[in-house]
Amino acid sequence: MHQSKSKPESRLAAITFFAKTHPGDVCGSNGLPLTPNSIAILGRAQKLKELKHPHLCQYLDFVRGKHERTIVVSEYFGTTLQDKSRSVLIEPLVVRIFYQIVCALKALTEHNLVVHNLEPKHVLLDDCDNVKLFNYGLYHMTRCGDYVPFPIGNVRYMSPERFLGSKNNIKSDIWSLGMIVAELLLQTKFWPNLKISNIARKILSFCQTNNVFERIAREHNCLERYEQINGELRILIENCLSVTPAKRPLPTDLFTHEVFSKDIEAYAYTEPPKPTILLYRCPLEQIYYWWQLAGGDVQGELKKEGLIRSEAPILAIPQLVCLNGKIVGPKRSQSYLMDDRVVPLKLNNLYEKLCNQPAMAYFPLIHSPKFPHNFGAGMEQLPLVIRERDIEYQFYRVRLFSRLLKGYPYTSEMIRKEAAKDIPPYLRGPIWSCLLDVIPIGSYGKIDKFTPTSTDRQIEVDIPRCHQYDELLSSPEGHCKLKRLLKAWVTAHPQYVYWQGLDSLTAPFLYLNFNNEELAFLSLYKFIPKYLQWFFLKDNSAIIKEYLSKFSQLTAFHEPLLAKHLASINFIPELFAIPWFLTMFSHVFPLHKIMHLWDKLMLGDSSYPLYIGIAILKQLKNTLLASGFNECILLFSDLPDIVMESCVFESQKMYECTPKSVSHRFHVLRETPLTEFDLTPDVTLSHLQAEMCPRISANDFTSLLHYAPTDMCALDLRSAVEFSHVRVPHSINVPFVAAQLAEPRLDALGVSQLVEMLQGRIVICMSNKHEHEFSKFLVECGVQRVCVLHKGFNILHTIEPNILISN
Amino acid sequence: MEKLNGKNQVDFIYNYKNYNDEDSSVRIGIELPFDAENECLDELVTRLLNDMDPMQRYLDENISLKAALRQFIQEENQKFLDNFAEQLLEQARQNEFDLEAVIRKTERHYKDEIIQFADRVGPSDEDIFAQSFHRLVHSSSLEEILKREGAYAKVISDITTQMDREVETLNSAQQQEMDSKIKQLDITTTPDDINNLLAQQYSTQNYIRQRYESELQAKRGHQRNEYRNWITSQVGKIFESSPATTPLGNRSSMFISQQPSMEESFTIHLGSQLKHMHNIRILSADVTDLCSPLHVDESLNGLNMALGLYSSSLCGVVVLTPSIQAQANKSIIKNANMSTEFHFDQIDDQLEKIEKQIFTLSVNDSPTPSMQSYNSATNGSGVGDISMPNNNGSGTSSSGGSPTKTATTKLKTGDFFITKHSNLSQSHVIFHLISDEPINSPSEINSRHPVILGLRNILKTASRHDVTTLTIPALLRHEMSEDMTVQWCMRRAELVFKCAKGFMIESASWGGAELSTLQLLLPHDISEELFTTLAGMVPNVFRVANPKILVDSNK
């Protein structure tokens, strides 16, 4: 299949402006420093990304630059009405434009949005004369213009009441619409040469006028044309331009108006032909994402157009700064003024990178083995960070996963399989929710998130301290959302309480699903029982103690020397690991590291976090081995930078080579009941705390023996007589003699080549007594992967079919 | 269904059938205009739902309730907004508004903030020169620039040395003359004669000085013109030949070790989850060494300073200065005058201008109500209301009548003024921080002390204006004195370290340039032992980054 080689037009554009800076040093009501306005804008603007409507340009991204700069990226193409109206437009086309703007306004009112900067420059027309509004969210994202120093809206199209301080009234937009259409119908530009003050004076003088439309027509010597306009249409415009806002029609009134409905076919949206370039058939937000990966740099583009001017900073330094906030310096440079030029972002680069991709890569077939979808298969060996920045690879992955996600929950298994390779950052939020088996059913809406509760105070305190380096989470919008999520979770779980740390645990989900609170909530809702079952009980000490004891045992299992050292200085996990596990590390790592960690965590079971903990210890091994108690406490009080890639790799490795029963905990959500050959509930907390090595179940023992005999080494501690009587194949008899264990030296056991035999295998001590003492001895000798057979040798007699050799 | 309840509140009454099929209703008051941000629809629905039987929740009552409420609010809110706008318009019709004022304000707003309507001013000479210089300095012409600067500097320093020499010879000659006269006192000369001679000598000296000063000034002016013209002419040529790309930042070290001073460097991480990396260097040196003149010898040819001058990684130094007018450290002034300042005003002119600014600032500082409220706002956050030494209420004393100059031209502790330099060794920008701590009695200060707050302001200014290397006096002193005990020094250093750390963490949210290197400057006459002690405190206060060790992963 070949794509036509026509040049790609630009479909994206950026605008930029500066947010207001806070004067001096002011604090908010909570005593914390005020949020910079640019961050507040960023938070408010997120909502706009969700608006997808044929008559609205889609918002794609909001970027915060240095010194309070905000950059807005959105859809942009075709011609502006301003350009189009340089030539005369026929009346049906004008009505069409009129109608379609009404559609856009109607869609916006449904989201409680007003435009307030409606003008021909912001009305775009495509080849089929479909209207799309552009830049309609500026007023909303800047909170009625409060966050920016400049005024919003073109004076020429501004309604009189807006000059006097009315705001947030959609009727003001109706006025602007009336003005735009009036201009088109009278085929002239109103007051082309007047100064702002004179235009304002004109508009305010309309207060005294009954028929604004007629008066404007008279002033511009267009009375004749005015009278030629279809009567119904003229009245409609006169209504739109009524000075009294109550008399202006609402978008819904206009939407069903006779003028349009009589020939709705001619006015309604015409579906444009399918683009010949396959790239354009992809969702715009994906195109923008790839554009960035293909080297697109919004700031760079703006710089090229002179919209970001780099003036030498030293020239702007003030001369005098006083403690009372007074600053004397050079005059503000004009480069800080609002410049509403629109900069198109060129897609050539991206197009060249992707134009040779087969159609199958754009639209992978996931159920047809005849057409494999394993594009980019060779790249899986590359490091994750490289794959995540590779345009081609991410292109394949995003296309594949967007397909798979559409088929969820039926594609659940395939998603899991593909996610094991890696998860494309662009779709991480929905993919995680699939891995957690989330199915949104609208239940979030019913949860009471508002009634004050006793935990509110703690939540209020925690939120402004939760991952605040992140722009989204530190915005007021982010705070509100996080609060709602936390309160919803608390309400939904009357059996649980809010433990500090739940905020950190929620943050990654909110960050990934900022515009979809329900998905964020349900992900959290599913995540907690999977990995943190009963951790949020009011009295969670039993669960935490079990968890930490298991952590100690597994540390001894994988890192015997480290475990020995930590035990000798009495540096127990209670001192450092509770926040690790209670928040699944989201309290100790920045978000971008949590993402990679949880990518793997989501695929593992509830024991996976334990291995992450060990991987962290392993990374700090040398420091820890050289440190005493105090140094260790200091080290963990502010965890040093951990290399996430190797941490993930190590934990994955340990997770895969550890038999399930070794990491067994009683307090987990269990799907199948335990049998007598599993670890039975009679292993209590006191056992866990007393025993240095974990136990292995008879089931795991048998399956190791059957399927991976080379991965294990069974040490039989019974006496030689008993051993000769009945034994496990390939097992080694080391009759237990207490005196041999006085010094931690393996050769004291008198077994030749024991070190070699134990190397790299799971060492299972079995006996009916003394096995715990013996296993501890092995750990102290530095033997890795030592575990103890649960219920001793005797359990093996009852296993069917028989695995023992007897003489 | 609703009635107007008071001015801005309407009651929403929702009628429904409950699970027993009985008619029921709930009611809630809704504030208008409806604030969709703070009071979201869902919250109101929840509150209404809570008034109903819990069963209704499961009967999906919330869906129809939400729809009804949404429509109600939309209608009522629209009515309210329309009425509100109509009232405004009516007031306008009745001339209750000063419409001309509204128009003026609107026009002002547009003209001041939107570039299309603003009175466009082209880039200033400074901007153009800055750009030309920056372009040139990052091209092959760099060497020539430096050579030229060196030559110019030599001329100036020659004149200065010549002046010094001449003044010195004159001095000794005059001294001899005076000595001989004094010996003859009451023999051939009268005290009057001596006084006359003194006056005469003084005026001769003055004359010589002035002659040189004016020669220097003329020379500097001449050099400056010549230099700037040359740069501008060069850049045209460069532009034709090669469009050299200008590296924006210059992160190379600004440090040229001049004399064996004690120093130690650390790389630290700040932030609880996301870690930002910074460099910390603790060193003992004379502050004037950080502001020594360029071009005095070959090693200090100003290469790094020239590269960084118009970049977005500037170097700044904090120098403490007493509050007597805008008075900079004498030796720094002298250093800055060792060569022509080609880019900014000569330091004396800069100081003079600042002096004027302080004066106008204090004249305008009559306590108008708005200003007072602003002050109280800052006080509320605990910034301004600490008793300051030498703060004899100068800012507000001039409430009535015209302020007298003496009372008002003083800066207060914690204020600072800034001078810019292109001809000093390690500083583009000098922050002259006012501190009146008496030299011989070290006092105890806390983190709310004005000097500390001034330091915070400096960090903030630095972040806003891309100063990425900053040197601060770690003891808030430039000299050691007898009374500065080891304990005192440790306490003081700990305070400054901790505050600096706090400000650096805070600065991450300021949205400006990140401070890449913080230099903690200790007095040059500090003992080695004390230096080691204080340097040892750095890793305890700041979190030192773990060294990255390359390990063979195959092992």
From TrEMBL, chain A:
Protein name, UniProt field: TBC domain-containing protein kinase-like protein
Residues in Rhodanese domain copies: 715-805
One family name in Pfam for this protein: RabGAP-TBC
Key words of the record: GTPase activation, Kinase, Transferase
PANTHER family: TBC DOMAIN-CONTAINING PROTEIN KINASE-LIKE PROTEIN, TBC1 DOMAIN FAMILY MEMBER GTPASE-ACTIVATING PROTEIN
Domain Protein kinase: 1-260
InterPro entries for the chain: Kinase-like_dom_sf, Prot_kinase_dom, Rab-GAP-TBC_dom, Rab-GAP_TBC_sf, Rhodanese-like_dom, Rhodanese-like_dom_sf
GO molecular function: ATP binding; GTPase activator activity; protein kinase activity
Domain Rab-GAP TBC: 422-605
Organism whose genome encodes this protein: Ceratitis capitata
Entry annotated with the keyword Ion transport: no
The organism's place on the tree of life at top rank: Eukaryota
UniProt-listed PROSITE patterns: PROTEIN_KINASE_DOM, RHODANESE_3, TBC_RABGAP
UniProtKB/TrEMBL annotation, chain B:
Chain spans, region Disordered: 365-406
Listed Low complexity bias regions: 393-406
Composition skew (Polar residues), residue ranges: 365-380
GO CC terms, sorted: cytoplasm
Name under which the protein is recorded: (Mediterranean fruit fly) hypothetical protein
